[in-house]
Write a structure and sequence with these properties.
By secondary structure, the chain is α/β, with parallel strands linked by helices. 33% of the residues lie in helices and 28% in strands. The protein starts with a strand and ends with a helix.
């Protein structure tokens, strides 16, 4: 399994997932279809699927155009998310095959939108799985609670995504990492892993390189929204439960002007 970043708009990423044995591919959130096709053609990939994480225009806005450019392509999206151009609605636990080796598992991760889907991708040929988290889980952050609650985000982050194998690579929808890490340090100023990751992320961006992917293990060590089960984090934000802490940290992030 090969995964290629496709930078789009100002800070979005689409991703090309390729089954190397068949050269069949899927694209996650193809907001700029021409760029996606250019990438697919340059790698000799036959595009079969669109995986849409959620209905916001900067993720689903290219779906109709993709259907024009690639006749017969299937467009997947959450069953309750009203995704533009969707041909195949998915629910939590639905599986979609790609090529000979790749399996895609749909995970319902609501809160940012009601029907947000993260896609967990495994391959017989690749020991390290990947998860495409759209705007639910960012590197060192999480999406705004536009259509859901702190309870839902806790379930999505700490239970659904947090229970994936630790080496799972995390591919999110936006390049927000530096800002997220700077904010995370306001919650945990003494977290050495956070300090190191911020230095690394700043160097990556200065070199014009992405900070993505991370891993589930890395997020458990550096992402304050995935660390709310820890008593010391709850104490830092003067809360008595994981959900309360998550709500408080999101509120602080919404008001932060770092």
């Amino acid at each position: 399994m090969k995964i290629y970043h496709i930078p789009c708009l100002e800070d979005n990423y689409s991703y090309l997932i390729v089954d190397e044995s068949t050269k069949e591919g899927a694209v996650v959130d193809p907001v700029e279809p021409e760029k996606v096709l250019e990438a697919a053609n340059s790698h000799g990939v036959n595009l079969k699927l669109v995986l849409t994480t959620h209905h916001h225009w900067d993720h689903a806005g290219g779906n109709e155009k993709m259907k024009e450019l690639v006749p017969g392509i299937k467009v997947y999206g959450g069953s309750v998310d009203n995704v533009k151009g969707c041909t195949d609605k998915v629910e939590n636990g639905d599986k979609v095959p790609l090529g000979a080796d790749i399996n895609i598992l749909s995970l319902h991760t609501p809160c940012h939108t009601k029907g947000h889907i993260s896609y967990y991708v495994t391959s017989k040929e690749d020991a390290q799985p990947a998860v495409f988290t759209g705007d639910t889980l960012f590197i060192a952050g999480c999406g705004k609670f536009f259509e859901g609650t702190a309870e839902q985000m806790h379930q999505s982050l700490c239970v659904t995504l947090g229970s994936l194998p630790k080496p799972t690579r995390v591919f999110c929808g936006h390049e927000y990492t530096v800002k997220n890490l700077q904010f995370a340090l306001t919650v945990e100023p003494d977290n050495l892993r956070l300090q190191q990751k911020l230095t690394w992320a700043q160097k990556q961006r200065q070199a014009g390189q992405p900070t993505i992917p991370s891993t589930i293990e890395d997020e458990m060590e550096t992402n304050p929204f995935m660390r709310v089960d820890l008593p010391e984090i709850q104490e830092r934000v003067h809360c008595k439960s994981p959900v309360e802490a998550l709500r408080e940290i999101r509120k602080r992030k919404d008001n932060w002007r770092g």
